[in-house]
Design brief:
alpha/beta, nine-stranded mixed beta sheet
């Protein structure tokens, strides 16, 4: 027996790229959808973008407002640089309706107003025959209905009417009904909820999630978005498992032979390296040195700076003989200063993804994780965000370097967070004292892709850049910060072998 399958209708783009991606292409056309959220979350802006997208595709639009005036909507459009004259704006509560000649006492005013409102909506829709309709907002109809049963019947009447017309309807609701407002979820075809989360410090975080969408697969969970001049920008939640690409897996040099030997021959594409140590030990300089090596190979790089200003970083790198300005001018290097109080994790992930997919970036540095993970204390599950981001970068063949600062200088050093389990390579830096000087040491404590050296080496910034010395085999307890010396191995810059001074 043969079975006839109904063809799936083409998707209706929403005008917001991120929402289309979450929905797998957009709305199913000729259905009714609910967009709900507290005042100020961006419902009206989303609805205007929906109608403007329809105009761009040659579809007529109708905006029915029960709460805002036409002039207010035009002012919103002007603030975004939009021309709203292409679709019809219908004010449902005209001024003359408030005059004494319209008053009557036979019926309750709400009964008359509700009936007239619903009839007017239907009449205008039948007269204009728009392809896209926005009804803003349901809270006014709810107040006129006076009870949930009557309110639900009015929405069902609108749904039945519009289901026989070739139009897609967005209903906006400000959640003033509280928990009882979810009764509409069973009526509409899909529900998108917008949220505005205020933290103790920094800007508000806006996010959305699709509570329901019949007949299509959509990306579940919360998705960050921003409300900017020009409309909503939505950043779909990153799922690393959805992104795979082929890439060469031969190790590439860090630009420092001693460091290459320490990590087992160089850094492997599709891996991430964690550079960990106390403040001022040379973590950022090491990352910049590896970045310079990638730039000299002609690879595009992106450097996300959280801790210091760009001017300070550029000046310090130039003083060390590693100028970054020429590479920025050539377009190979993208250097971004990030304010963690003003950016959401989803926005950062989206920025990194665009750099990789649109600009062809092959080297990404994040400096530092302390600022990323600690300067956004109101955000939950930041480690899961970082896990997905690193998984995505690894599957794209990108070399990622992460900087993590530790508390302390000599002796016991502590770390607020542990992200080493996410890292493929871990470079550990330490200070140690010798002959009245504070020296630095480096070792590789983990490398998933290569056989690496397990010795501890002296490290310093010399006239030729980074220098990695011989293994400190004649020291004991280098990582403790106060190692006794028993041997004759010369340190970097020493003119003669060191004499025995400790432990005697």
């Amino acid at each position: 027996m043969s079975t006839t399958h109904a063809t799936t209708p083409a998707r209706l783009t929403t005008g917001i790229k991120g929402i289309d991606a979450i929905l797998g292409g957009g709305f199913t056309p000729n259905r009714m959808y609910l967009v709900e959220g507290a005042p100020g979350t961006g419902k009206t802006t989303l609805a205007l973008q929906f109608l403007l997208q329809g105009l761009a595709e040659g579809q007529s639009g109708l905006y029915i407002t029960l709460s805002e005036t036409r002039s207010e909507l035009l002012a919103i459009g002007e603030s975004h640089g939009w021309d709203l004259s292409g679709f019809t704006i219908l004010e449902q509560l005209p001024e003359e309706g408030l005059g004494p000649q319209y008053e009557q006492t036979v019926l309750h005013p709400a009964e008359v107003e509700l009936g007239e409102s619903v009839r007017n909506v239907i009449q205008q829709a039948d007269r204009l025959k728009p392809a896209r309709i926005v009804l803003d907002s349901l809270s006014e109809l709810r107040l006129l209905s006076e009870n949930p049963l009557r309110y639900r019947r009015q929405i069902l009447a609108l749904k039945r009417h519009f289901s026989t017309r070739a139009c897609t309807v967005l209903l906006l609701d400000d959640l003033s009904a509280g928990p009882s407002g979810v009764q509409l979820h069973s009526i509409v075809h899909g529900v998108i909820r917008l949220e505005n989360v205020a933290h103790d410090y920094g800007g508000n975080r806006r996010r959305l999630h699709v509570a329901k969408m019949r007949g299509i697969r959509f990306r579940e969970g919360f998705h960050d978005f921003t409300l900017e001049t020009g409309g909503l920008r939505v950043y779909p939640r990153l799922v690393a498992a959805e992104h795979h690409s082929e890439f060469a897996k031969q190790p590439v040099t860090t630009g420092t032979p001693g460091l290459d030997a320490l990590v087992g021959g160089g850094l492997l594409p599709g891996t991430n390296a964690l550079v960990i140590g106390p403040s001022g030990v040379g973590k950022t300089t090491t990352v910049v040195s590896c970045l310079i090596a990638a730039l000299r190979r002609g690879e595009r790089c992106a450097y996300y700076v959280f801790d210091e200003t760009l001017a300070t970083l550029l000046g310090r790198c130039a003083a060390l003989g590693m100028p970054l300005e020429p590479h920025m001018e050539s377009g190979l290097l993208t250097l971004r200063q990030i304010d963690p109080a003003e950016i959401s994790p989803g926005q950062l992930s989206n920025d990194v993804r665009n750099a990789v997919e649109e600009q062809g970036v092959r080297y990404v540095a994040i400096d530092s994780l302390n600022a990323y993970l600690q300067a956004m204390p109101g955000e939950r599950y930041l480690l899961l965000h970082m896990h997905e981001l690193l998984g995505y970068l690894n599957q794209q063949g990108v070399i990622t370097m992460l900087v993590l600062g530790q508390h302390g200088v000599i002796g016991e050093v502590q770390t607020d967070i542990d992200i080493s389990y996410l890292s493929d390579v871990v470079l550990l830096f330490r200070y140690f004292e010798h002959h009245g000087e504070v020296l630095t040491a480096v070792t590789t404590v983990k490398s998933r892709g290569n056989e690496h050296e397990r010795t501890i080496h002296q490290f310093r910034l010399g006239p030729e850049g980074l220098e990695v010395g011989e293994a400190l085999r004649d020291f004991e307890g280098v990582l403790s910060g106060l190692p006794p010396y028993r041997g004759s191995t010369a340190l970097l810059g020493a003119e003669s072998p060191l004499i025995e001074t400790s432990g005697r």
